[in-house]
Specification:
mainly alpha; 87% helix
Length: 129
């Protein structure tokens, strides 16, 4: 069939993308399924002589239902992944801020210790003289 959405090589490439990089694969799957409409399915099934029109329509209804379900799941998965990524970013920022505060506090304690040590050394030196 001369339909770009049914091109074997591009479908194979989309499946490889989905296996190699699931995030990009969902996008490829969504795009591929978005290209397949009722006309594509009719053309695909009408090429078969052993399928009646009633069976073809029933099969097309099932395929469209499955396509819609897969598209909705892919969208939910992508939304959930995006939400989790945002949560991880927020947690990393909070941890970085907490670390910065702890380092600043440690630096002040170090400075205070150095000042107290210098005063104690000066006092001890003056007593020794």
């Amino acid at each position: 069939m001369e339909r770009p959405e049914l091109n074997y090589d591009s479908i194979k490439a989309d499946l490889r993308t989905m296996m190699d990089d699931p995030q990009a694969g969902f996008g490829a799957l969504r795009d591929r399924l978005g290209q397949v409409d009722r006309g594509t399915l009719v053309a695909l099934l009408s090429s078969r002589r052993d399928i009646s029109e009633a069976d073809a329509n029933r099969l097309i209804d099932q395929v469209e239902s499955a396509r819609t379900s897969v598209l909705q799941r892919a969208e939910r998965i992508q939304t959930e992944a995006q939400r989790r990524l945002e949560d991880v970013k927020r947690q990393a920022q909070k941890q970085a801020e907490d670390t910065r505060k702890a380092a600043a506090t440690a630096a002040w304690w170090l400075f205070a210790t150095a000042v107290v040590s210098a005063i104690a050394s000066a006092y001890a030196g003056s007593i020794a003289v």
